[in-house]
Amino acid sequence: GLQLSLFDYRLRNASPVRFTVDGAELRVETLHLAGEDTELDLTGVVDLEDRLLSARASGVANLGIIQGFVRDVRSSGRASVSAEITGALESPTVTGTMTIDQGRIRHFALPHALENIDGVVRFDSRGAVLDGVRARLGGGDVVFGGRIDVAGFLPERVDVTVTGRNMRLRFPEGMRSLVDAELALAGTPDSLVLGGDVLVRSALYSQRFDTGGGVIDFTGGAEVLASTATSLEPTLPIRYDVAITAPGTLRVENNSARISASADLRLEGTYERPLLFGRVDVDRGEVTFEGRRYTVTRGSVDFNNPTRIQPFFDVEADTRVRVPGQTYQITVAAAGTFDRLTPTFSADPPLPEIETIALLLGDVSPGQDVELNRYSTVITPQEQLLRERAARALTGALSAEVGRVAEQTFGVDTFQLNLSVNDLYQQSSRLTPGARLTIGKRLSDRVYLTFSRSLAAAARDQIILLEYDQSERLSWVLSQNEDDTYALEVRVRHVF
User: What is the pLDDT of residues 33-60, one digit of tens each?
Assistant: First the structure.
């Protein structure tokens, strides 16, 4: 019997092999090869003197054979083959057709596989033509066009177009997207360029933020994007030139944020070191940080670093802080990169920035802390902010874990236990710890309920807020204040 092994794919003769030899001519009369999901009949003539081949192959083949030619690929499915093989033994030419049925191809470096591959691949003297071959990727329809030139049964040149519609992708990690794409892959197998356009119909990031510091972390975040420069195995020899458009279709909805944004980006660089250029604009949003809800009034993220993916943030958000007898609107603005983010704080009615920070991050009412008044002219806001963040870093992990368990147990959206220290100054010997419990629950897309209570023995104040967003411009806030009085606020947002 005859047994052949092509890479890790094995074939054997399923019936006696019949051939004749006439001088330098070898004529194959009958050769029936069989393997897993494979039945091939081969007949033809080989001129041993001139080293020429003229043969015909027909039958059904297993697409698993593809993984022997292309590294880091797994394939399956069946194809009906009808082909003529002619020319020199060293570089024969294949003409004919291969009709694919329910094929599947997956590259190890990609999160999705091409499923349900169907269509006719036509072979000519140069290689394979893919026009009209269809598949499914991420549940969406994909149509291929173009060709792959072949030399010695191996790909030599790629010029393939891909049109995809309604593809549901899980990339990057934590993001679920619905996209349309018009792409072209061109080049040699060792140097490919992926270009074209991607339209993001919707994209949702819902993975939790469990940093312990909240959404706005003044020290974290750089490590997340630094990983994009790390070489991954397996890899792809691809350079990018892809335009990405998301017209108001980017969303973040998790335990800490509800944000809607638009993007106009360009993906360049290589698979190992991708580069991103362009801009993301925040259309509207709200974030929860240290137990408080902030409304994002302005936000943009620019990508312009030519050596690595490094976003530059320009964000502004405001919140309301209630103390006995007064409500402050506090605006937090931040500009810069993750490792050089510069925050500024302002309040209405006006407060010194150091008192604004103390009011925002702790339970220090303006003008009520003698130690704070004494040293506010000595200590810069940046120093206080760093000290406040250092104190919270000691308790952030505990607070985040308590909040996560409580949110899952009681079915609330926010459960925040903020531990604070009213006096963090080296000049003072007084150290007064305190804490505030904040519980938030979204009752609908437009209604949010917040309960906030100080746990300090000297200040048992509590606040209950019922917020109703009638539209993007108009909202209503019904509150029970610390002194058991009630108030109704009307908020109108106007963009200049």
Answer: 787 778 888 899 999 888 898 999 898 8
SS3 (DSSP) at 185? strand
User: Residue 393 is encoded by which pair of tokens?
Assistant: 């870093």
Q: Please, which residues have CB within 8 angstroms of residue 226's CB and are 6 or more apart in sequence?
A: none
Residue type, position 428, single letter? S
Which helix (H) or strand (E) segment holds residue 371: the answer is helix 370-375
**Tokens of residue 378, six digits:** 């000595």
Count of all residues that appear for the chain in the document: 496
Rounded distance, CA 294 to CA 288, Å? 6
- Distances from the Cα of 455 to the Cα of 186, 400, 435, 461, angstroms: 64, 18, 5, 8
Residue 265's Cα: distance from chain center in Å? 14
My answer on whether omega of the bond before 350 falls inside 30° of 0, hence cis, is no
pTM: 0.70
Measured N-to-C along each axis, helices 353-361 and 381-410 cross at an angle, to the nearest 10 degrees, of 20
Which of the two residues, 167 and 450, has the higher pLDDT score? 167
**Closest CA relative to residue 210, chosen from 177, 241, 255:** 255
HSE toward the beta carbon, residue 51, CA cutoff 13 A: 5
Tell which residue, 327, 259, 319, 261, has the closest CA to residue 295. 319
Q: How far is residue 245's CA from residue 266's CA, in Å, rounded to a whole number?
A: 9
Helix (H, G, I), strand (E, B) or coil at 406: helix
Least confident of 294-303, 344-353, 355-364, 404-413: 404-413
In 71-174, DSSP assigns E strands to: 73-88, 93-107, 114-123, 127-129, 134-137, 140-151, 154-169
Distance CA 255, CA 439 (A): 12
Task: Report long-range pairs for 264-268 (Cβ below 8 Å, ≥24 apart).
Answer: 265/303, 266/241, 266/242, 267/240, 267/241, 267/242, 267/243, 268/239, 268/240, 268/241
User: Nearest CA to 328 among 345, 350, 343?
Assistant: 350
Q: Which residues contact 394 (CB under 8 A, 6 or more apart)?
A: none
Most confident option among 1-15, 76-90, 278-292, 303-317: 303-317
Q: How many CB atoms neighbour CB 94 within 10 A? A: 20
The 8-class DSSP code of residue 270 comes to B
SS3 call for 290: coil
For 432-455, write each residue's pLDDT tens digit: 445 667 777 777 777 877 777 766
